[in-house]
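Data deposition worksheet. Section B asks for the primary sequence of the deposited chain exactly as it was used as input, without tags or linkers unless they were present during the calculation. Section C holds the resulting structure in token form. Section D is free text for depositor observations; keep each observation to a single sentence. Incomplete worksheets are returned to the depositor.
Section A, Depositor: J.P.
Section B:
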Amino acid sequence: MAISECPECTYHIPLPPNIAVGDIINCPDCGALLKLVSDFPPVFEAVKEE
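Section C:
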């Protein structure tokens, strides 16, 4: 299972098996909105709410 780090709180997030680049999830620890910007290696970027 791939794991990535939340850029806001550094929580280690296990990636769901069906996630794709461009998908947005919430960090299960801090609740930040995160967009998957790379899948190898898996990297999240914080999404700023407007």
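Section D:
Residues 3-46 form a domain with the Rubrerythrin, domain 2 fold (CATH 2.20.28.160).
The chain has one domain: 3-46.
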